[in-house]
C-alpha cells in the first residue's frame, strides 16, 4: 500500500475520532472542529502525493472519494442532530452525491472518466468551509457558516446539473 492510500486510511480512521469528540465535548474547546480540519487536510495531502509521485491506484480512486463523502456526511449528520442545520438541505446534498457517484460509475463502465468541474470544486470547498464554520465554538462563525452552508446547497444543485448536462450522452436516453 502506497503512502497516498495510507493517508486516505488515516482520514478514514479520524472519522470515528471526530464523532466521539463531538458527542463527548460538542463544540467545547473546538477539538471536534480541529479533528475535522485535520481529516479534511489529509484529502489535499493524499491527492498531492498520489499525483506528484505517480501513486494513483484503483484503490485510491475508489476509496478516496468514498472516505471524503463519509467524512462530510458524518459532519452534516451530527449538525442535524445538534439542531444546527435542518435535514432537508442535507438530503439534497446526499442525493446529489449518490446520483453523481452512480453517474460516474455508469460513465466509467462506458470507458469515460468524468473529471471534477469548477462547480464541483466550488461545491466541495463551500461544504468544507461551512462545516468548519459550523463546528467551531465561535458564534460569529456559526452565524456566517449557515449562509455558507446554504451557498453550498445551491452549488451542490448547480454542480449536479452541470455534471449531468455536460455528460448527458452517458445516460443514452435513446435506449430506455
Instruction: Estimate percent helicity.
Output: over 70%
Mean of the pLDDT scores?
93
The ordered H/E elements are HHHHHH
Oligomer: single chain
Biggest sheet overview? none
Structure characterization notes:
The chain is mainly alpha-helical and 176 residues long. Helix content is 78%, strand content 0%. It has six helices and no strands. The protein has helices at 3-25, 31-52, 58-81, 87-109, 118-135, 139-166. Helix 1 packs antiparallel against helix 2 and helix 3 packs across helix 5 (118-135). The longest helix is centred in the C-terminal third of the chain and has 28 residues, at 139-166. The protein is globular. The protein starts with a helix and ends in a 10-residue tail after the last helix. 28% of the residues are buried. The model has no long low-confidence stretch (mean pLDDT 93).
Amino acid at each position: 500500500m502506497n503512502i497516498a492510500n495510507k493517508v486516505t486510511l488515516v482520514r478514514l480512521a479520524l472519522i470515528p475520532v471526530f464523532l466521539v469528540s463531538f458527542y463527548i465535548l460538542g463544540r467545547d474547546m473546538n477539538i471536534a472542529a480541529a479533528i475535522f480540519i485535520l481529516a479534511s487536510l489529509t484529502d489535499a495531502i493524499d491527492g498531492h502525493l498520489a499525483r506528484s509521485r505517480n501513486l494513483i491506484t484503483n484503490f485510491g480512486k475508489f476509496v478516496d472519494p468514498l472516505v471524503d463523502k463519509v467524512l462530510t456526511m458524518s459532519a452534516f449528520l451530527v449538525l442535524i442532530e445538534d439542531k444546527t442545520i435542518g435535514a432537508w438541505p442535507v438530503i439534497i446534498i446526499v442525493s446529489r452525491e449518490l446520483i453523481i457517484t452512480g453517474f460516474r460509475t455508469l460513465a466509467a463502465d462506458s470507458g469515460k472518466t468524468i473529471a471534477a468541474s469548477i462547480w464541483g470544486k466550488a461545491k466541495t470547498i463551500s461544504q468544507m468551509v461551512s462545516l468548519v464554520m459550523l463546528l467551531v465554538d465561535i458564534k460569529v462563525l456559526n452565524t456566517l457558516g449557515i449562509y455558507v452552508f446554504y451557498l453550498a446547497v445551491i452549488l451542490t444543485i448547480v454542480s449536479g446539473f452541470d455534471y449531468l448536462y455536460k455528460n448527458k450522452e452517458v445516460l443514452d436516453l435513446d435506449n430506455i
